[in-house]
Amino acid sequence: QVQLVESGGGLVQPGGSLRVSCAASGFTFSSHYMSWVRQAPGKGLEWVASIDPGGGSTYYADSAKGRFTISRDNAKNTLYLQMNDLKPEDTALYYCTRPRSVRSYEYIYRGQGTQVTVSS
């Protein structure tokens, strides 16, 4: 069955960096768009970034542009999100998804999430 397993979250100070990863299995990873979405405490899902199957095209929410980088390693069936210059408002549960469409928080499959907390 499809599995998406996120890792790499943690506590980081404002201005710091963090890379979260997502190990995918149970489907042909290299054939599908992938996305990161997040959910802050008390709020709904927010789309963060998407990447095309080959990794050549990427898409970012305005909140992520210039600070976050989505990438993938199709040989390892792994999705990444490099986050730089983190801000307290980036605190959220970050989910790896196989999305219904690019630039959308809606998903077909979703992992269990990894917590990112930005605080001094």
Summarize the structure in short.
The protein has no helices and 11 strands.
What does this structure look like?
With 120 residues, the protein is mainly beta. Helices cover 0% and strands 51% of the residues. Strands 2, 4, 5, 6, 9, 10 and 11 form a seven-stranded mixed β-sheet that branches. A hairpin with a 4-residue loop joins strand 7 and strand 8. The relative contact order is 0.31.
State the secondary-structure class. mainly beta
Q: Which stretches are low in confidence, meaning pLDDT under 50 for 5 or more residues running?
A: none
Q: Could you tell me the number of beta strands?
A: 11
Molecular shape:
globular
Distance between the termini: 40 Å
Order of helices and strands: EEEEEEEEEEE
Give the overall pLDDT as a whole number.
97
Helix share, percent: under 10%
**Main sheet characteristics:** 7 strands, mixed
What is the alpha-carbon Rg in Å?
Answer: 13 Å
Put simply, the count of helices is 0
Identify the quaternary structure here: single chain
Strand content: over 45%
